[in-house]
Amino acid sequence: MPAGFAFGLPVGLTFMGTAWSEPVLLRLAYAYERVSGVRRPPGYRPADVGF
After folding, report:
1. pLDDT tens for each residue of the chain, 51 residues long
2. How many Cα atoms are found within 13 Å in the side-chain-facing hemisphere of 42?
3. Longest Cα–Cα distance in the chain
4. Which end of the chain is more exposed for a tag (fewer CB within 10 A), N or C?
């Protein structure tokens, strides 16, 4: 999940748990994403058409 940016490049954060702990991990990741506010929507550049 997004954790911020370093030198203009995205840095990620990984949540890990034991087997069958996915519901807890998803809740933690969602809460972190809402509180941190580091996620930026992706930017799109126009395609380079070489005609």
Report:
1. 888 888 888 889 999 999 999 999 999 999 998 998 887 777 777 777 665
2. 2
3. 53
4. C
Q: Which residue has 């972190």 as its token pair?
A: 32
What are the structure tokens assigned to 24, written together? Answer: 């807890």
Cα(5)–Cα(44) distance, integer angstroms: 18
Q: Which of 11, 29, 32, 13 is nearest to 21 (CA)?
A: 29
Residue pair 15/29 in contact by the 8 Å Cβ criterion: yes
Ranges assigned E (strand) in 1-51: 2-6, 9-12
